[in-house]
């Protein structure tokens, strides 16, 4: 669609070789194959069941924790933050790839995003929804959470706008709203496709409403494209700002290992890295089980893998700089902490982090491995683990080995922590699974744009419009011009 | 078109306002204003205060020297009611004595004083336990009882007059207590007129003054 | 929202007073919905104002010292004990055990009323039934004319009571009364009596140039600790001119840790050293340094140096008090050294001594046990004392009791002894009853009830009188119906004068002495008893010592004392075996590994604690734990060290705690030490800073411990002086900040012109931890170590509580203790194998930073900076993000992990009636909120309210915090640093002053004064 917003004197959008879909014969095929993924299967029901079970178990654990007190989590003062905040940062991080891929790469005209961005975007929304729960789970009196929200009240008191936690409230809610909107706007033409294919009248009605009466007319496409471009531009800064704000939760405290200016870029890079990891974790099974290898091609994965490699190196660089700064600052608290991090009490966690995020991804220098979905999947799992441990390493060792030697401690999560973490995965995948069976997990309209250009000739083999309907050829057809 | 947009804008603001109101209501509405439970002894304040002109401090005897206002001991009641008991016809415009309440009292004060039982009054004015309200500081600062407790001398059955919510407290601490209003509430119109241009008496509104 | 526990209502009904600010309320409580009753007095008592405290002067009975206390009583309930400033012994200070007396009074396991053993179980009875049963027993004894077979064992207490019982027994023609004191150093008393003519001369540490303690733990339990500590701290406060302190002993006790030098000798060799020193200072002695050196394993040079120092430094003060069989001889030798060194009358003042005495030791009880086993004892009365627990198995006291037809206990608690009795006539708590003491010759300390009895109990003295008056033979001698009348009738000036004296709790006169016949058993063994070597099969000397908090076991049922980390090991709720790291390495033992210590008498198994302060050839176990009864807080914790002891007694008749060698073997199992210690080393972070006397003399202040990049100016006084230093709402870090918080400087309230601050003098602080318990008492701090307070270990629980972590101290293992004020104990030196090392104690509490890291991060302003410089924590605003604790460099913020204040949670910390002690002025925090030291803001506000009511402003040093008030070292000074009226304003100008982590720019309100050390070498 990008082409639509280009000045008229430019050549049509012809997909570059590395992102073409030679195996796609016709628009109809695109509709058929992608819409075809929406049929529920027993395997899907099984997975959904498991996810919901996990979610309910986690929810139960939370209720239990609210009744009996946070003491049932593994906190070991002065380690006052644990699994919940770790998971909060982890999920917010996951939530970053989506917007990056759909917005920033869109602005950069990176064609390979086309087939994976929808999946990434959905992932973003659900990840942020998950992340948003954790601060509430984490606090001592969840029923008072709304005190962090500025609202007129007769106590005449407001939140402390100096506190990064209040910034979080804004950052997370903004990000959730924008990414959700972005996802929905992108979906509109596809929903229209589903609407037109739907046979069940009820479903048809619902889809009709959701598609906002999309009629596939030239003005609609024009507005749509403008809107999409605008949202892309709007959410691009958010990708950078949100995780910067999250990093302030740490950087603003004097705690050794937290109090560092490198944190915002370091966190953003980490977030994008982890997000791409999660994209692989999700898209690779999908293209396999839905047999969409010819749509989400190895070329696309290869390109995404390069992005992963790049961000991994940024993150690795940040790790090393942290150590260098600790040494260079000559601040003994800082030095003691970083020594303890890699060689002391927490060496194992630190090495999980370093190897998963810094060392293993280097394998992506090999094209062979970049183009090997199996390896990419395994690596993506490692990256997820590594990025969870990155947050663990930032939070737990810092707090357990702070200024006051008398108060040094350890930390072991409890069954409640673990249940709630598992529950959060249940919650996330519950939404994602519901998504992939109700809405196209691959953007129909955009895929049509990158299929072989022969369909775009002035004398098409078949007169098909972008939404795959056989109509009389008209020059108004988007993507075409006199 | 522009009309429509502005309409959308308005509805958006409306939604936000509703949400805010809801939150603030939830946050502040835990008040039992107007709570008026039946008491074990239906003590007629009007009779004692309005007609007989008794001072609040006679029964609530520590309000000016303790954080607690103090409740009358059964002994205090019986100080008079050893003598003043039983029905009596209306004379010289004073209504006949209502013995129902009196009998309730006597049911707690049977026999000699060592057999008396304490009266289990139902508490009406209750601040949360994390708020420290020293009565004597307020009484000594000249805040009249009626300012917070309302027209008790008129109340056949005492009820919670003020909301006792934090906003209500802070309001007075910040804006200051107007003596004139207090005296007016206490029914002293003359005094109120005299105190008309007395500066409002402000108080500290720092959290740790009441919460610790 | 949780409701405040129902116990509140129960209390109010019970009190029959106007419910004041909610005692057991919770911060989350919003109790508008609950119907609550207000119960007024029936007849209002004179001179009590609801909601305003009344103070009564009385006596602390937690140890033999009988300190004077002021009980703060609110609405008919004692809520706090503080030292009586006029009292000659403790001059206003009070130790942790004294503070915890309240938890004896409100102990949930107290007998609610008299009990009689029916079908082999103690069951509630009426007083008439119980007394009838006793009378019957006495008559039977008389009938069998074995009246002399009626015996009385009481916990000895300073005052008339022992004499009173003597008389009672005599009047009834009964046998001897034994007034038992398990802890008192009877040998030292006997030796002092013989050498000085006074059982306990006044010790003046300030006059000495050198203090040598031969095993005498004068700061933790030897004699009257508080009195000693007051004087010792004053001596240390002379800084450069302060006496150097050398401690000789096998184990560094709390006293030992305060010494400048530790001479680690083998247990049992103290006598040899003492004799050597005696010779060296020119006393008549057989001992020589060479002998001492070989006996003690200390180099002769070291001893010689000490001897020279002792000769040079005059006057000096030498104290001898060991727990070995030689105790008498050591104390005697020490006394003779003092005489030879000319210390008597200078540092040792026999004429000002206390009349403490007349106590019987374990030997007397052992003799009684033999009689009981012989079957000659018909009736046994026990009051207070707990012989079954305190006596070694070899004494066979329990077995003996089984042979006594009638055992009557006057105990208030279900301890090991009273559980074996047939009748229990529960006594009032000391705070509910009358009594007297004679702390100093000629001065009477008066004990009066501070509140009505909590339960259906009766004062033993009154019971005895009643029994006597009902008895034809004795009635004649008891004209007074009540013990109180007996006291007043003895009191010069009678009733009127007595009543007058009660206001100060002090009067003239002397307590009733014990009848000589009765106290014959207390006479020491022949003073010439030969030295006894410590023998036994095994390679280690076994050092058994009383616990500073639990004593010989009496304190074990008080959660405050269980929760109080041992000042030396920092271990709570647990027993441990102290073993030297080098030895541990040799045996392959790590901290927490179980060790079995076996002697001829028996064995105990407890986790190992690696301690530099124990002689490599010795292991040490503390007394106090291992109760099989004595209530929920004492039962089943740790081991009873007495199990390893045989029936060996010292010259004073006390059980010789250090008496044998033992085999030490690594046992199966490992348990983590319930310790509050993270790292015992400072890692050069300058938290506890010190100077040598030489440096001080040279005018060095030591400066900051080192420089940091971006270090703040060490000039913090302006920041401290500023009404509110650079607070979170001002220009951070700027000394010239004009923003002083929410009020303008000139705010009419004057609030913004104050800066509440505190100085802590590390050269005074001895680490005794009295302040910690005082803080628990004042601020309703929950104890979290009891075995039912642990967290859940799995999702589903059975009714019997399985599935919960029921390890004693489980929460403390998780670092969740709530002590707002903790004593950090840092070791310096000793890593590289040298014997001696230095110890620094640092009381660490909220520093009330002017520029607080915690304030800016709180999203809801639950913690913020008050205009008077306080770092405030608003519990009811807190949502529990715990960000403040992460930001706090001092780690002094504590989180309510469980519903410690909520009666319906199993972690509830104040089971009925413990909640009656709660301070009504302080909110009981609910679960999920953060809490911390408030600088006793309730006291500040109370002072302001009082001042306003009296139409004045708060005056200098008008009040102080609970910790400062209790401190027996007077190390803590609290006040308004911005006003010259307060002594703290002068204190902060001391050149030794420093801020902890100054480089963080926190501008704390707590200023520490560096410790001053006196390294070796005679002056």
Give the tags:
heterotrimer; A: 482 residues; mainly alpha; 2 domains; 15 helices; 0% strand; disordered N terminus; disordered C terminus; B: 212 residues; elongated
Could you give a short description of this structure?
The complex is a heterotrimer of chains A (482), B (212) and C (1019). With 212 residues, chain B is mainly alpha-helical.
- Which shape of chain A, going by the Cα principal axes? globular
Low-confidence blocks of residues of chain B: none
Percent strand of chain A equals under 5%
Question: What's the overall average pLDDT of chain A, rounded?
Answer: 87
Distance between the termini of chain A: 17 Å
Measured between the Cα atoms of the first and last residue of chain B, the distance is 57 Å
| Low-pLDDT stretches of chain A | 1-14, 457-482
* Share of helix of chain B, binned: 40-55%
Oligomer: heterotrimer
Computed over alpha carbons, the radius of gyration of chain A is: 24 Å
The number of helices of chain B is: 11
Describe the model.
The complex is a heterotrimer of chains A (482), B (212) and C (1019). Chain A is an all-alpha fold and 482 residues long. Chain A has helices at residues 27-36, 42-68, 83-107, 117-138, 164-197, 201-210, 218-251, 263-289, 298-329, 332-343, 347-359, 367-370, 373-400, 415-438, 444-449. Chain A has 2 domains: 8-451, no CATH class; 453-482, no CATH class. In chain A, helix 8 packs antiparallel against helix 9 and helix 8 (263-289) packs antiparallel against helix 13. Chain B has 212 residues and is mostly helical. Chain B contains 11 helices and 1 strand, in the order αααααβαααααα. Chain B has helices at residues 2-28, 45-51, 56-59, 74-81, 99-108, 135-140, 145-149, 166-175, 179-185, 189-194, 207-210; one strand at residues 121-122. The longest helix of chain B is centred in the first third of the chain and has 27 residues, at 2-28. The model of chain B has no long low-confidence stretch (mean pLDDT 85). With 1019 residues, chain C is of the alpha/beta class. In chain C, the strands form 11 sheets. Chain C has a 7-stranded mixed beta sheet, sandwiched between helices. The longest helix of chain C is centred in the first third of the chain and has 17 residues, at 127-143. Chains in contact: A-B, A-C, B-C. Chains B and C meet through helix 4, strand 1, helix 6 and helix 11 of B and strand 1 and helix 29 of C. Strand 1 of chain B pairs antiparallel with strand 1 of chain C, so a sheet runs across the interface.
């Amino acid at each position: 669609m990008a082409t639509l917003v280009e000045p008229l004197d430019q050549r049509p959008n012809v997909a570059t070789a590395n992102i073409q879909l030679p195996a796609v014969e016709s628009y109809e095929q695109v509709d058929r194959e992608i819409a075809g993924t929406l049929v529920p299967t027993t395997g899907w029901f099984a997975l959904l069941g498991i996810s919901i079970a996990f979610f309910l178990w986690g929810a139960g654990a939370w209720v239990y924790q609210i009744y009996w007190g946070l003491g049932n989590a593994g906190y070991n003062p002065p380690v006052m933050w644990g699994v919940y905040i770790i998971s909060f940062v982890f999920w917010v991080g996951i939530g970053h790839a989506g917007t990056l891929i759909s917005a920033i790469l869109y602005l950069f005209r990176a064609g390979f995003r086309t087939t994976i961005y929808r999946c990434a975007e959905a992932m973003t929304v659900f990840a942020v929804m998950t992340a948003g729960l954790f601060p509430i789970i984490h606090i001592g009196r969840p029923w008072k959470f709304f005190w962090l929200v500025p609202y007129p009240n007769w106590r005449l008191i407001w939140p402390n706008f100096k506190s990064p936690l209040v910034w979080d409230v804004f950052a997370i809610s903004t990000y959730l709203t924008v990414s959700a909107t972005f996802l929905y706007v992108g979906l509109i033409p596809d929903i229209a496709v589903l609407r037109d294919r739907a046979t069940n009248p009820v479903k048809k009605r619902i889809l009709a409403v959701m598609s906002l009466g999309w009629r596939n007319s030239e003005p609609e496409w024009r507005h749509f494209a403008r809107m999409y471009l605008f949202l892309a531009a709007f959410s691009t800064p958010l990708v950078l700002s949100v995780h910067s704000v999250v990093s302030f939760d740490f950087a603003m405290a004097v705690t050794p290992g937290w109090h560092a200016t490198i944190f915002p870029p370091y966190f953003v890079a980490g977030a994008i890295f982890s997000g791409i990891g999660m994209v692989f974790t999700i898209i690779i099974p999908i293209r396999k089980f839905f047999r969409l290898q010819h749509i989400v091609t190895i070329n696309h994965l290869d390109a995404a893998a390069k992005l992963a490699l790049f961000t991994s190196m940024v993150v690795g660089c940040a790790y090393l700089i942290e150590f260098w700064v600790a040494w260079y600052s000559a601040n003994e608290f800082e030095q003691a902490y970083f020594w303890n991090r890699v060689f002391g009490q927490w060496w194992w966690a630190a090495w999980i982090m370093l190897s998963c995020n810094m060392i293993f991804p280097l394998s992506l220098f090999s094209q062979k491995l970049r183009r090997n979905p199996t390896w990419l999947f395994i690596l993506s799992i490692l990256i997820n683990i590594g990025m969870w441990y990155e947050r663990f390493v930032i939070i737990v060792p810092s707090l357990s080995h702070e200024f006051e030697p008398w108060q040094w401690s350890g930390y072991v999560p409890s069954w409640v922590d673990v249940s709630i973490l598992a529950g959060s995965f249940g919650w996330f995948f519950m939404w994602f699974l519901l998504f992939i069976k109700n809405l196209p997990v691959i953007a129909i309209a955009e895929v049509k744009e990158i299929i072989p250009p022969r369909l775009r000739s002035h004398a098409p083999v078949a007169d098909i419009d972008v939404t795959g309907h056989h109509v009389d050829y008209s020059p108004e057809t988007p993507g075409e011009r006199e | 078109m522009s009309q429509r947009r502005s309409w959308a804008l308005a509805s958006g603001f409306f939604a936000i306002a509703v949400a805010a109101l809801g939150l603030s209501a939830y946050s502040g509405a835990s008040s039992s204003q107007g709570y008026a439970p039946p008491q074990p002894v239906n003590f007629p304040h009007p009779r004692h205060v309005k007609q007989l002109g008794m001072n609040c401090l006679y029964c609530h005897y520590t309000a000016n020297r303790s954080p607690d206002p103090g409740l009358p001991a059964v002994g205090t009641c019986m100080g008079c009611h050893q003598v003043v008991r039983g029905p009596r016809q209306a004379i010289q415009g004073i209504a006949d004595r209502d013995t129902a309440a009196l009998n309730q009292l006597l049911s707690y004060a049977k026999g000699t004083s060592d057999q008396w039982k304490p009266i289990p009054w139902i508490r009406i004015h209750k601040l949360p336990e994390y708020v420290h309200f020293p009565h004597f500081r307020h009484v000594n600062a000249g805040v009249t009882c009626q300012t917070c407790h309302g027209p008790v001398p008129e109340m056949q059955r005492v009820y919670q007059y003020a909301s006792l919510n934090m906003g209500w407290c802070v309001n007075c601490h910040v804006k200051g207590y107007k003596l004139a209003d207090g005296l007016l509430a206490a029914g002293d119109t003359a005094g109120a007129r005299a105190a008309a241009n007395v500066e409002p008496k402000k108080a500290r509104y720092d959290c740790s003054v009441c919460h610790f | 929202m949780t409701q405040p526990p129902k116990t509140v209502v129960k209390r109010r009904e019970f009190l029959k007073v106007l419910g004041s600010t909610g005692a057991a309320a919770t911060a989350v409580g919003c109790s508008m919905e609950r119907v609550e009753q207000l119960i007024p007095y029936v007849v209002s008592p004179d001179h009590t104002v609801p909601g305003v405290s009344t103070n009564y002067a009385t006596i602390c009975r937690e140890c033999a010292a009988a300190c004077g206390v002021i009980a703060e009583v609110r609405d008919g309930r004692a809520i706090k004990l503080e030292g009586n400033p006029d009292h000659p012994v403790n001059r206003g200070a009070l130790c942790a055990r004294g503070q915890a007396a309240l938890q004896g009074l409100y102990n949930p396991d107290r007998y609610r009323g008299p009990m009689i053993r029916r079908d082999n179980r103690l069951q509630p009875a009426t007083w008439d039934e119980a007394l009838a049963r006793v009378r019957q027993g006495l008559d039977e004894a008389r009938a069998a004319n074995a009246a002399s077979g009626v015996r009385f064992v009481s916990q000895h207490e300073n005052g008339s009571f022992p004499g009173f019982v003597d008389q009672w027994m005599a009047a009834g023609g009964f046998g001897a009364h034994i007034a038992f004191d398990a802890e008192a150093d009877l040998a030292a008393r006997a030796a002092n009596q013989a050498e000085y003519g006074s059982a306990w001369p006044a010790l003046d540490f300030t006059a000495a140039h050198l203090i040598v303690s031969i095993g005498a733990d004068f700061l933790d339990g030897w004699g009257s600790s508080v009195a000693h500590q007051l004087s010792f701290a004053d001596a240390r406060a002379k800084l450069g001119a302060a006496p150097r302190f050398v401690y000789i002993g096998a184990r560094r006790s709390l006293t030992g840790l305060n010494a400048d030098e530790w001479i680690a000798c083998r247990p049992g060799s103290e006598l040899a050293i003492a004799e050597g020193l005696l010779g060296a200072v020119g006393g008549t002695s057989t001992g020589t340094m060479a002998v001492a050196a070989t006996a003690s394993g200390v180099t002769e040079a070291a001893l010689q140096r000490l001897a020279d120092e002792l000769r040079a430094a005059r006057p000096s003060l030498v104290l001898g008090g060991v727990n070995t069989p030689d105790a008498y001889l050591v104390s005697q030798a020490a006394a003779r050294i003092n005489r030879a060194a000319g210390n008597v009358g200078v540092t040792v003042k026999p004429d000002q001594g206390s009349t403490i005495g007349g106590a019987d030791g374990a030997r007397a009880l052992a003799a009684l046990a033999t009689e009981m086993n012989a079957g000659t004892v018909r009736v046994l009365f026990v009051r207070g004392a707990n012989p079954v627990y305190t006596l070694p198995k070899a004494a066979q006291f329990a077995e003996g009791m089984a042979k006594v037809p009638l055992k009557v206990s006057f105990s208030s608690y279900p301890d090991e002894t009273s559980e074996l009795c047939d009748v229990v006539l529960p006594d009032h708590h000391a705070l509910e009853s009358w009594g007297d003491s004679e702390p100093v010759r000629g001065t009477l300390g008066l004990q009066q009830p501070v509140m009505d009895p909590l339960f259906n109990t009766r004062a033993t003295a009154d019971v005895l009188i009643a029994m006597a008056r009902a008895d034809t033979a004795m009635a004649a001698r008891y004209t007074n119906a009540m013990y109180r009348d007996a006291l007043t009738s003895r009191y010069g000036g009678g009733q009127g004068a007595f009543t007058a004296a009660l206001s100060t709790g002090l009067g003239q006169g002397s307590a009733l002495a014990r009848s000589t016949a009765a106290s014959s058993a207390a006479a020491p063994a022949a003073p010439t008893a030969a030295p006894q070597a410590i023998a036994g099969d095994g390679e280690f000397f076994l050092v058994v010592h009383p616990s500073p908090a639990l004593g010989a076991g009496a304190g074990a049922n008080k959660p405050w004392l269980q929760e109080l980390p041992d000042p030396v090991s920092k271990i709570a709720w647990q027993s441990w075996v102290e073993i030297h790291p080098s030895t541990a390495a040799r045996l392959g033992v790590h901290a927490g590994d179980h060790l079995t210590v076996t002697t001829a008498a028996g064995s105990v198994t407890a986790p190992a604690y690696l301690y530099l302060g124990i002689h490599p050839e010795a292991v040490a176990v503390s007394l106090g734990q291992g109760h099989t009864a004595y209530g929920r807080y004492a039962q089943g914790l740790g081991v009873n060290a007495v199990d390893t002891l045989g029936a060996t007694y010292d010259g004073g008749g006390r059980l010789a705690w250090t008496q044998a060698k033992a085999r030490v073997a690594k046992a199966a199992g490992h348990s983590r030490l319930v310790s509050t210690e993270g790292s015992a080393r400072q890692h050069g972070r300058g938290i506890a800073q010190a100077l040598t006397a030489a440096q001080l003399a040279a005018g060095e202040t030591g400066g900051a411990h080192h420089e940091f990049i971006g270090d703040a100016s060490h000039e913090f006084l302006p920041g401290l002086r500023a009404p509110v230093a650079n607070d979170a709402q001002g220009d951070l870090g700027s000394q010239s900040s004009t923003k002083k918080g929410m009020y303008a400087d000139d705010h009419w309230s004057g609030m913004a012109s104050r800066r509440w601050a505190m100085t802590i003098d590390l050269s005074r602080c001895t680490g005794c931890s009295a302040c910690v318990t005082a803080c628990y008492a004042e601020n309703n701090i929950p104890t979290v170590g009891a075995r039912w307070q642990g967290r859940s270990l799995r999702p589903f629980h059975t009714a019997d509580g399985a599935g919960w972590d029921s390890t004693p101290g489980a929460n403390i293992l998780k670092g969740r203790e709530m002590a707002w004020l903790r004593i950090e104990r840092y070791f310096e030196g000793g890593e590289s194998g040298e014997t001696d090392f230095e110890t620094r104690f640092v009381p660490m509490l909220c520093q009330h930073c002017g520029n607080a890291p915690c304030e800016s991060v709180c999203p809801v302003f639950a913690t913020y900076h008050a205009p008077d410089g306080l770092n405030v924590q608003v519990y009811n605003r807190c949502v529990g993000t715990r960000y403040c604790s992460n930001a706090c460099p001092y780690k002094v913020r504590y989180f309510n992990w469980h519903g410690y204040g909520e009666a319906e949670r199993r972690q509830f910390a104040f089971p009925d009636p413990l909640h009656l002690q709660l301070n009504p002025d302080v909110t009981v925090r609910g679960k999920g909120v953060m809490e911390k030291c408030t600088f006793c803001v309730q006291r500040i506000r109370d002072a302001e309210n009082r001042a306003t009511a009296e139409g004045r402003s708060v005056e200098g040093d008008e009040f102080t915090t609970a910790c400062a008030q209790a401190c027996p070292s007077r190390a803590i000074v609290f006040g308004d640093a911005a006003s010259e009226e307060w002594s703290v304003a002068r204190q902060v100008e001391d050149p030794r002053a420093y801020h902890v982590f100054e480089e963080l720019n926190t501008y704390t309100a707590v200023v520490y004064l560096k410790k001053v050390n006196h390294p070796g070498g005679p002056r």
